[in-house]
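WARN retry 2 of 3 for item q-0093 after timeout on previous attempt; input resubmitted unchanged.
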Amino acid sequence: YLSRREGVNAISEFRMVVDEKPEFIPAYLRLAGAHVLNQEIELAEDTLQIAQKIQPDSREVAVALARLYVLKKDVESSEKQLRKILEKNPDDLQIQMNLGDLLVSKINFKGAEHQFRLIKDKAPDNPMGYQRLARLYAGQNRLPDAIAVLEDGYNKNPDNLLIFTTLVRGYMAQRNQDKAIAACEAHIRKNSKDAFAYNLLGQVLAAGKMYSKAEKSIQTAIDLQPMWPVPHNNLVRLYLTQGKKEEAVTRLETALESNPKTPPAYMTLGMLYLQSGDHEKARKTYKKAMENHPDQWTVANNLAFMLSEYPKDSQDLDQALTYARKAQKTAPDNYLVLDTLGWIYYKKEDYGQAEDYIGKALAEAPENPILNFHMGMVFIKNGRQLEAVEKLEKALNSEQEFDGRDKAEEALSQIKAQVG
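OK item q-0093 returned
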C-alpha cells in the first residue's frame, strides 16, 4: 500500500502490526511514513514519539524525528534529536555531519564550524570533514581559509580524489588557474597513469579556453581508461563549446570505419549524439558498439542505460533490462551495473526490485550523488518520504555535477511543500 501511495490503507495495516507487536519499532517507522504520505504530520510525530518512549536509545527513531522536524521547519527540535544521538555515540560521523549542516541552515556558522572541525580531527582520512568545512568558509567569502583546509586535507590524503578535486575547484573559484594547473600537473607527476587527474586537468584547461591542450589531456584520460564515460562526456562538451560537432563526428566516424573494434570511439560518438539531442543516432551507435564488442560489460551497460533514459516504448525497457543483465554476468558487483538495473526497474514501476539493486549499489559507493538521487526517487515511489529527503539532500550536497540534479531539486521541494 505504501509503494502504491495508498496512505489510508497503509496506515490501517501498520496500525494492526503496532497493535499486535507494540515493541516492534520498524512498524512505528513505517506507520509514521504512511502518515507523512497522507500529509498527517502531527500524527507522524506522535507515532515516532511513542516509538522513542518504547526505545529511547533508538538511532533510527531519533533520525526519523530529526528529518520530520526539518520538514516542519522546526530546526530546534531537529537539533535536539541529533544531539540526543551524539550523547550516546559521540563518534557518529554521519550525525555530526547532519548536525553541522543543520547549524548552517540556522546561520550558526560558529557551531557548524565546530562540528566540521570535529569530523576533520576525528577522521583525518575522511574527505567529508575537509569538504564541509571548506564549503562553510567559501559560503562566508573566506576563500583563503577554505583553500587552507583543502590543502591540509590533500597533504594528509594525497590519494583522495574528492579532496584533490575540491582543492582544484577551489583554486578555480579564486581565479587562480595557474595554481589549479600546477596542482593537477604535480599530481600527474606522482601518478602518471591517473586518468582522473588528466581528465580534471583537461577541464581546467578548457575553462581557460586552452582548447588544444585540454583536448590532449582529456584524450590521455580516455587512452588510460577507455571505458570510463566521464572523459568522453568532457571531450564531447569541449567539441560542442568550440562549435566543432560536425568535425568531431566526421573524425570519429572515420576512425570507426578504419577500425570498428575501437570501443572508446563508439562511446564518444554516442555521447556526442546524445548531448546534441540526436537520440536515434546515439541508439544506432551504441548498438553498433554492442555488435562489435558483445563481451564488453561497459558497452552493454551504456546501451541499457541509454534505452532506459530515452525509451520509445515499453519494449525498449525490456531490451534495456536484457542488456543490463548481460553486463551483470560479467561485472556482477559493479555499482554502475547494479544502479542501471535498479533504474530500469524504477522506469518499469517495479519499485521493490529498484530499491534492492540501487541499495546494493549504494553499499559499494555510498557518497555517489547519482545513486543517492536514484534511491531518493525510489523512496518517494515507495511512500518513504522521510528517507527520500535524506538521499536527495545528500545528492544535492555533493560538489559533483550529475544528470538529474534539477529533478532531485524539484522532488525535494515537492516533499517539503506537501509538509508545509
